[in-house]
Amino acid sequence: MNRMPGRLGTLVARDVMSTEVLVLPEETTLVDAVEMLKEHKHSGAPVVNSRGHLVGTFSLRNLTGVKRNQTGGENQKEVSGVESGIISAAALEKLMKTSAAQERVVDRMTENAPSVTENATLIDVARLMCDFHTHRIPVTNSRSVLTGIITTMDILAALVHTADELTE
């Protein structure tokens, strides 16, 4: 566990996470997931099972064609028109007309995605974001139940607020 000096070093995931989280039940269809993400202006969300346990993450990038499985192999499935986590209206319309429309997020999600517990230090969360090139880290309790999410904006806000406190 890494610590930073001062107040910034005392912050843990619980202190900066958002508790209102858009979650995708694992049985959600791709079309419904994309609609939910667009409606909330998100590019991705945690995927949970019926007990609320985190089972993976799904982002619009998961529509770009490659799903990595637990053994490191890949399954090729492609929806063109999705780049850098943004889906065009034409790509969404095309998706709705394909057999992929009824695939479930569990079929395309990133399994074993990084997550942290509520007591993870802010620096450990930031390090995970850098290591996995992700903009969101789900937060779970000791029973692996999703309790929140931390985004890059949450990390930046904590940094700015801490810096502001030092200048006051």
TrEMBL record:
<keyword id="KW-0129">CBS domain</keyword>
<dbReference type="InterPro" id="IPR046342">
    <property type="entry name" value="CBS_dom_sf"/>
</dbReference>
<dbReference type="Pfam" id="PF00571">
    <property type="entry name" value="CBS"/>
</dbReference>
<dbReference type="InterPro" id="IPR051257">
    <property type="entry name" value="Diverse_CBS-Domain"/>
</dbReference>
<feature type="domain" description="CBS">
    <location>
        <begin position="109"/>
        <end position="165"/>
    </location>
</feature>
<dbReference type="InterPro" id="IPR000644">
    <property type="entry name" value="CBS_dom"/>
</dbReference>
<feature type="domain" description="CBS">
    <location>
        <begin position="17"/>
        <end position="74"/>
    </location>
</feature>
<protein>
    <submittedName>
        <fullName>Inosine 5'-monophosphate dehydrogenase</fullName>
    </submittedName>
</protein>
